[in-house]
Amino acid sequence: MLIGKTSSELRDFNSAQYLPTPSSRLLTMRSLTEEETRTLFTKLAHYTGKSLNALVTPDEDGRLSVFRLQGSRVYYVDKELANLSTSIPRDQLLSMGTQVGKFTKTGKFRLNLTCLDLIAAHARYKIYIKSNGVMPFLYGSNVLRAHLSKYSEDMPEHAGCVVVDENDVPLGFGVTSRSSQEAKKLEGTGVVVFRQADTGEYLREEDTLFTT
Amino acid sequence: MAPNKGSSKGPSVGGAKGAKSSLSSASRVSKSSKKDGPKRPPPKEQKSKPRTVQENLKKKKKRVYTEKELDLPELNQITPVGVVKPKGKKKGKTFVDDQEGMMTILAMVNAEKEGQIESKMMKARQLEEIREAKKAEAEARMKERKNKLENVKDSLRKEKKGKGGDKPEATIKDKVFKPKAKKSVAFA
Asked: Chain B partners of A159 at a C-beta cutoff of 8 Å?
């Protein structure tokens, strides 16, 4: 294939490998479209209350953070940092800011464990678990009735909630299996919260947690 | 035309002109003789088909109808009625980068979510009420049944106490009758 080419032509040919390939061209770092923003906020609002507004308004220092899409992953980044990141080639930019989650190929949004800090600060429902329930939860099991310490009273079923330990340290998030009234009547081994993500994943899913 | 003439007459006849012409002609000849060049197929005569041929007649008959002329009902088209894209609108994605846009979307999403949760809670409350009512009813029934049972028991006990003196006689009577029954059996 290379026969009969001059050295300059060869050089050109070699430099072609540094051009963005069609697949990497898809990885454009950009702000979200209207529809994407709606799906993202719907998912976030599942776990958070009205205070979610704080995420899109500038903080006390006047610094604003924005949501940026890189590939299928969504990051929550300081706006200045996002602007600076344009100097890095898109296909070489792996991650920046806080990863919120990713868009599936069907257009749904999946929250990642890394967004726990964002959610926990604005959580709508919190479930406190006893110290004897912390380790089972961190190993990936659901929250049982016996491990419950306290929980908000007016919780409906299938609502997103943040699981915290007794010292108010967020451990993960999940979805309630029953409303709080029904949970009261449940026996000790009954599942109260279906686990979605827990901080134990930082160890268990270490290899795949940040892969794009 | 001239060089050809020259060549036919021979190179000696003409002056400078003739020489030139002869050279050019010679070169042409030599080119054609030495190099065959790319072979071309012999030119074919293009016969124009008479208009009376069926194909020509058919083509003429074809007529393109516009959509208006066809007068089709709106649903019977390739693009459904609702999907017609507005012309002159910009293609591509519309990004939400301004804060106001984000806030409006967020407010809409929040309102929707609140509504959902509210309806969920309402439904849960109603179900809870129904459950409570059913439970109360079931308890009331159970109590009634128990009362009935107790009443029957009490009545039976009272009967027993009341008939306490007559019982021994009855037993004696039974004893008297029993042999008769046996006899009858033996007889049968």
From this structure: 117, 120
Model confidence over A114-125: pLDDT tens digits?
999 999 999 999
Residue that wins the pLDDT comparison between B154 and B85: B154
* Strand pairing report for A160-165 and A126-129: parallel
My answer on whether A133 and A83 are in the same domain is no
Rounded CA separation A101/A104 (Å): 10
Write out the two tokens for A182: 């029904």
Q: Which residues contact A208 (CB under 8 A, 6 or more apart)?
A: none
* Contact between residue A73 and residue A96 where contact means Cβ atoms under 8 Å apart: no
Say if the Cβ atoms of B96 and A31 lie within 8 Å: yes
Task: Give me the phi and psi of A128, to 5 degrees please.
Answer: -95, 130
Do A42 and A96 lie in one domain? The reply is: yes
Residue B62: what residue type?
A: K
- The answer to whether A42 contacts chain B (CB < 8 Å) is yes
Among A26, A28, A31, most B C-beta atoms within 10 A, so best to mutate, is A31
Same domain, A108 and A144: no
Number of inter-chain CB pairs under 8 A, A vs B = 57
Say which range, A122-136, B31-45, B107-121, B133-147, has the weakest mean pLDDT. B31-45
Provide the shortest C-alpha distance from residue B131 to chain A (in Å). Answer: 11
Above 70 in pLDDT, residue B55? no
The position carrying tokens 């464990």 is A113
Digit-coded pLDDT (tens) for B64-98 = 888 778 877 666 666 665 666 677 777 788 888 78
Q: Which residue range is the domain that position A169 belongs to? A: 125-204
Decide: residue A197, CB within 10 A, 0-12 exposed, 13-18 middle, 19+ buried.
buried
The residue type at B58: K
Q: CA B96 to CA B102: how far, in whole Å?
A: 7
**Quick one: pLDDT at residue B94?**
83
pLDDT tens digits along A15-48: 444 443 444 444 568 889 999 999 999 999 999 9
- CATH number of the domain at A37, please: 3.10.450.220
pTM of the model: 0.62
